[in-house]
Structures are given as C-alpha cells and as structure tokens.
Amino acid sequence: MKSSRALIAVIAPPALLTLAAAFLFALLPGESRPGHVFTGAPPARIISLSPSVTRMIADLGRAQSIVGVTAFDRPPHAGARFIGTYIAPDAESILGLRPDIIVISSYDAAVQNTARLGLTGVPVHSFPRVRSRADIYRGYRELASLMDRSALAEAKLAEYDLLIESAPRPAGKPRVGIFIAHEPLVAAGGGSFIDGIIRDAGCENSFGRLDAPYPIVSREYLVALRIDVVISIMEGAPEFFRGLFAQAPGPGPLKNDCIYSIDPDLICFYTPGDYARAVNDIARLSAGACSNETR
C-alpha cells in the first residue's frame, strides 16, 4: 500500500483524492472501523480526516466545531488548522489541537497512514464504506446523532429527496458511462455510489453489471459497448474519447457526441447534498442523448 499512497501523492490533484482512495479501498478485503468508541456529549473540537465528512459536519451546522483538517481538505472556517497531508496526518499536530474526537471515512483510510492515531488516546470514529444512496444517508444520520443534530438531518434529507425527485429525467433512459481516470480507464461500476446517481438521474449505468465499485476496463470493452453519454472527471475527455472511438469499426458507440468533462467536485463527495446535486447535473447532461432504445 505504500507504493499506492506514493503514487496518489504524486499524480492526484486534491479534488480527485476522494475517488482515488475509494478506488484503492475497493481493492482491500473486508472493512475496518478502528479506534475508540465516542460516547460523550456532542464533541466541541473535531479533527476531520475526510473531506466528505467535513462537508457533512458543515451541512449539519457544526462547521465551527472543526479544529483541524488535512492539507487536501478545504478548511470550513478561518480558525481550522491543517494537521498534515491527506496521506499522512500528523499525530503531534492533532494532539496540539486538543480534539474531542477524530472522524474518518473507511474509504479515505485506505490510503491514509493512520497507524499512530490510536496512540493519541483521542477517540476515533470511522464511518463505513459507501456503496449506495442508502449508505450515504446512513452515515449522515450516524454523524448527526454524534453531533446532536438528528432533527436537522431528517429535515435536510427530506429536502435532498425532493431535489432528487424533481430532477428532469431524460427520455428513453440513456446509457451513461462515468470515468474517474483515463490511463488506465477506470469507470464507476455497479458497486459504487455513482451507480446510484446515474440510476436516480433516470439513466442506465453502462458499467452497472460490473460489481466492482471502480473497475478498470479495456479500450476494446468500451468501444464494444452500446453507450449514449460519456462523462469524465478528467480534463480533455471529449478529445480523448473521440480519438478512442475513432478506432472502433463501424459508426462507433456514440451517436450524438455526448462526451463531457466535469468538475470532479460534482461526484467525488459522498454526502447527501452532493449526491442530490449530482443527480440533477447528470440528468441535465444526459438530456440530449439518443438512447439505444430510440435509435
């Protein structure tokens, strides 16, 4: 895993680290939720090692409780301090902030060197892996309970459900492929929460039959697919995929040239609010596609 951490530190922009960690986490067996169990009053001083958990804490109105985040996170307020890198949080910096609790996601822990956190004596609350909208909501409720914000969480979830339900669904259920890397080609498979975003947007995931959250797919497999919309969090997606599809025999898998590069922030955070907004944006991008059923 050391080589994987080093590779991510070199090639991955901050906005891509969450999904990079999720990709590596998918390669690991089982699930671990290390650390002490926090059973006290709502924590007043929080260290967040996960950008997604940071965003959920802020969404629950407790941003001011965050005293430290990693250097690849966005401080929720001017008083929050950096406590090391995303890959290697610094135990001494954490202790210096006198936190009540450290919160972490199992996804992020796949690439983080957190072995020394247990030596700090600070309770560590680890949220489990996320593979669906239900998992995201479950983690949000778990966090809300920890923060004594359960009533607010339910109101927020109702608001996000309404946003998802009101998304303008494209006609014909177009097949959508979402990519998180080009070299190699890494897609969002049926075991990822992005699969749920695609389905809730009224589309079909071209890679939904692949159980892995983020499978590596061959170019030959891709060009053989019936696919209507290609969406990538990498820059230059239209040029990259047009060149790839130009090598395919016949007219190629795309009819309407629906290829988009999107801001990684659109789909890389597994929070209820980000999920709901992503559903609307994916539905909007897919609206102009010609589905397989209507060709």
Concise structural overview:
With 295 residues, this protein is of the alpha/beta class.
Number of β-strand runs: 10
Q: Look up the CATH topology of the largest domain.
A: Rossmann fold
Radius of gyration: 20 Å
Helix content: 25-40%
Count the helices. How many? 11
User: What fraction strand?
Assistant: 5-15%
Spans of at least 5 consecutive residues with low confidence: 1-15, 23-37
Overall form: globular
Structural class determined from secondary elements:
alpha/beta
Q: Mind describing the biggest β-sheet?
A: 5 strands, parallel
Question: Helix and strand succession?
Answer: HHEHEEHEHEHHEEHEHEHEH
Order of neighbouring strands in the sheet with most strands:
3-2-1-4-5
CATH class of the largest domain: Alpha Beta
By CATH, the superfamily of the largest domain comes out as Nitrogenase molybdenum iron protein domain
Q: State the end-to-end CA separation.
A: 46 Å
The whole-number mean of residue pLDDT values reads 84
Query: Structurally, how many domains make up the residues?
Result: 2
